[in-house]
Amino acid sequence: MSGKTTGTVAGEQRASLRRRPFFWIIAAVIAAFALAPAIGNNVELRESLLLATVYITLASNLNIMLGYAGYINFGSIVFFGLGGYTCVYLISAHGWPLAAAELAAGVAVSFLALVFGLGILRLRGAFFALATIGINEAVQAFVSNFEPWGGAAGLYLPTTIFKPLGGPMRALWVVYFLLVAVMGASLYLSYAVKSSKFGLGLIAIGQNEDAAVVLGVPAPLYKALAYSLSAFLPALAGGLYFFKSAFIQPSDAFDLNLSTEAMVIVMLGGRSTVTGAAIGAYLYEELRGYLLTSQTFSSFQLVISGALLLLIVLFVPGGLMGWIYGRWPRGKEVLE
Amino acid sequence: MLGIIAAIIDGVLIGSVYGLAALGLTLIWGVMEVINLTHGAAIVAGMFGLYLLANAVHIPPYATLPLILIGGFLVGIVLYWISVHRLMGRPPLMILLSTFAVNLVVIGLGTAAWGTDLFNVPVSLPSVTWGRYTFSGTHILAAALTTAIAGALYLFLYHTKLGKAVRAVANNREAAELAGIPTTRVLSLSFGLGVALAGAAGMLIATMFPFTVLSGDAYQLKSFVVTALGGLGNPAGALVGGIALGLIEGFAGQFMPVSWTLVIEFVLFVAVLIIFPRGIFAFRRA
Amino acid sequence: MRKLYLLAAVAALVAAPAFADDMLTIGMTLSQTGPLNVDSVAQQRGAELWRDEVNAAGGIKAGSKHYKVRFVTYDDQSQGGRVQQLYTRLIVQDKSQFLFGPYSSGLCATAAVISEQYGKPMLITGGAEAKTLELGNKYLVQVLSRAGEYLAGAIRALESKNAHAKLAVVYADDPFSKAVAVAARKLAQAGGLDIVLDESYAPNTTDFSAIINKTISASAEALVGGGHYADGATLARQIHDQKANLKYISLLVAPDSPQFASLGDAAYGITVPSQWEVQAAYKPDFGPTGAAFAKAFAAKFKIAADYHSALGYAGGLLLQHAIEQSGSIDADKVVAVLNAMDVTTFFGRFKIATDPGHHGLQVAHEMVLAQWQRKNGRLEREVVWPKAAQTADLIYPLH
Q: Chain A closest CA to B30's CA: distance in Å?
């Protein structure tokens, strides 16, 4: 494929994307996230939505590998954690401004993902799933021993770090809007991939990799690209999240539970749908937040999350979107 | 030098128990190509089985082993029907998630019942002293019992009719079905066996180390590493892989800071998966 | 769920006028579950005892008003992941006027920035690591001695018995234990002890045999280190099982819990740096004596108080004193009083640094060293260091 034709194809796709209603639905979601807490300075709503933006970012990007290509990635959190570490390290040790540190974190982590990807994407199914756990654990163990990154004690940011953003209170808003932007980018990326030839290739791989190869899908290249692509935005989200925390340590950055939560979210919403990952993440975050702070249910939150997941897997394997499509087949044309 | 030999011996003793735990995981994979994420919960259930039976009912610690094996087997069969049977033939993600969900429920119930306090089952056994080094009796007996259980499993798989049926299903489920083997029954039985082995390993670990409701995750990860070394679905490989892991932990730790052994362990894990996806110690499939 | 929130909000609005004037809300997360729960729950119980006693006595008096104390708590599951969200919620939704920090240095480091962002005073009763307080905060107040102090007594006590002992430093990979180990290493080297082994381990380690074999191979006579409850208790048991024949063992945190006695023989002779022991008879400027606190605690919870419980109680007591002195519940006024305070309670002395680079860092409180000894066939903790405060002689060597 020559550069010229790629350019035209991409251009046409972009135009057609904008004509579809779903493009505007995403725009409306982003606007709602940005405006709802800003109206009336609702800090409480902002904090609740902030975690939702992180979950949506993680789930949407996981969906590229898991939903489209059918590769089970238990260790997707490693991108989030490495992004956080790179960003916090560049700010604290080298005094980089947030924007530059973020960009560097995204690029570095995507590159690393490409390297990891070229290695482990030779594996399929369960072997790939196990390898992703191994990578996360290896990186966590390594960072725990890596003194320039503070080892097990982690890295701290001084409170003065928020000054350039207008003090600690305003910085929280700035970080929130940036996270909403990252979330929006994740939704558009997820949508753009799904509607592209690249996405079709991934879905073909997900259905039958051998057949896809026979039909001319460059499977190894596509998989490595998808893996690397799905690392970029989570790395940015990790950078922002840990910048806001002003503290990062290995056990928080590489928490395997967060990876599995992202998988649960994708299942809850419905695999390989853009809307599903987003709604799933939002619902899940609200549910967990409610269970964790409820006096009655807080000791049973694991039981409830587990039982819910089991029921979905057993009886509603298509998730929320699968159920909606079942009731309202025309939904497929509106909600991707 | 003596220290290194002592470390190797201790590594082998503990590693054999890791092998037993991994045996449960690998058996299930070998028969039905399912990664059982309830594995960690089964190990913890074995630990608490020992605690309850030994502390509350006052059964001698090692006499609980057969009870835990039988209990684990029955629970495993129930788990098969709840979380696996309906999903056979669906994408592998589904069973990963359903067993993960059951894991959450079990750990959640355990946390509600016992909190996450540390439990300790004191087992007093004479230990063996060699120069300045001491090998605790619990480690030696755990290794011996592991060998006995693995031997019994071998006899079952290779010298009983049912065992042969299990191997036939593992080799080719459709062919086994055509040959008149009741495959569903064999699958549920294998799942029960896998859970029973994990429970037994948990019980033996609990005689050696204190534990909490959340201990399962760490041992489940170790089981993954062991199965990767030994080859998924390969029972003999699991035992050898377990011993290899114990050796790495004991031996490598003598030459570098012990906290780096975890890095070595997981890097090796990924490297082995990529280079030898069927395991370093992959002899042949059961 | 939105509806539930809405209902809760409406209920809060309706209920608010009834108590808004005389209710003081203190927010905190605790680790009801997860690896830190033993010490976190002990700390929380101390705080609850303080709250109940204050309310029974008519509340905190500030100026002309009396405030009853109300706690709002959430479970942080011993994980940093939700600590910030929960503290934000405590401030924004539950309208907490003051905060108690979570348990452990790692979680405190995560929570600290919220106190700064929202300008709410946070009393740190469970985070000894000093780094958190060196980042330019204005609202943190550390009640306990910092991490660097932990093993000072243990090392001096060892030096008093054997000035050139061969020492193994073995500690958990977490912010607190690492800070303790760094300070201990310096002290030991300055004093002439011979560090023959320096190892760290992952906090969820259960098998310590490799480290113990290394300790034996290095011919170490003494071992200092550990981390929190679960790993510390496990390490103690395996040192005993593998007969490491150490003459002296000092572990962080774990041996201070009454539960540690369940290890039986493995607990015998182990020393622990302690923020407080009941035997330490400070003359309090206000509040109960140590003995009175311990008695009330045992009566309420049917379990002996340890230093984490004492910390929980002391945090409340100091906050109460500061509010009463300032005559208001205004955050800045109360912090100003805390900055200037130099007082002694049953818990010992309290004074914090006030320079911008170290604001809130505890500079006056002193620690003691306790040892598990046998008394009438039962395992009990005795204070063995410093000499001025000791209730029994240090047992040395153990083997």
A: 12
The C-alpha angle with vertex C40 and arms to A259 and C305, in degrees rounded to 5, equals 165
B141 falls within a domain: no
Shared domain for C95 and C128, answered yes or no, is yes
Residue B29 belongs to some domain of the structure: yes
Contact A213, A87 (CB under 8 A): no
Judged against a pLDDT cut of 80, whether residue A333 lies above it is answered with: no
Given the cut 0.95, state whether the ipTM is greater than it.
no
Q: Which of the residues A46, A47, A144, A155 would you substitute to probe the C interface, choosing the one with the greatest number of C C-beta atoms within 10 Å?
A: A47
Q: Which residues of B116-145 are buried (b: 16+ CB within 10 A; e: fewer)?
A: bbbbbbebeeeeeeeeebbbbbbbbbbbeb
pLDDT at A3: 40
pTM of structure: 0.88
Nearest chain A residue (CA) to B112? A299
Q: DSSP letter at C146?
A: P
**Structural domain boundaries, residue C252:** 149-274+367-389
Nearest to A249 among C85, C106, C137 (CB): C106
A64: number of Cβ within 10 Å: 28
Per the domain annotation, does C356 fall within a domain?
Answer: no
Say how many domains are in chain C: 2
- CATH number, domain containing residue B152: 1.10.3470
Whether C10 maps to a domain, the answer reads: yes
Chain B residue with Cα closest to C238: B209
The CATH number assigned to the domain holding C153 equals 3.40.50.2300
Amino acid at B170: A
Q: Is residue C248 part of a domain?
A: yes
CB within 8 Å of chain A, chain B residues 226-245: 227-228, 232
**Chain B interface, mutation test: which of A78, A130, A149, most B Cβ atoms within 10 Å?**
A130
Asked if the Cβ–Cβ distance from A306 to B108 is below 8 Å, we say: yes
Contact predicate B214/B107, CB 8 Å: yes
- A110-122 confidence digits (pLDDT tens): 999 999 888 888 8
CATH code for A3-255?
A: 1.10.3470
What residues of chain A lie within 8 A of the CB of C32, using their CB?
Answer: 298-299
Over the stretch B213-266, which tens digit does the pLDDT of each residue have? 989 988 999 999 998 888 888 888 899 999 999 988 888 888 888 889 889 989
- Shortest CB distance from B102 goes to which of A126, A141, A306? A306
Q: Do B212 and C35 touch (CB under 8 A)?
A: yes
Structure tokens at C240: 């005993």
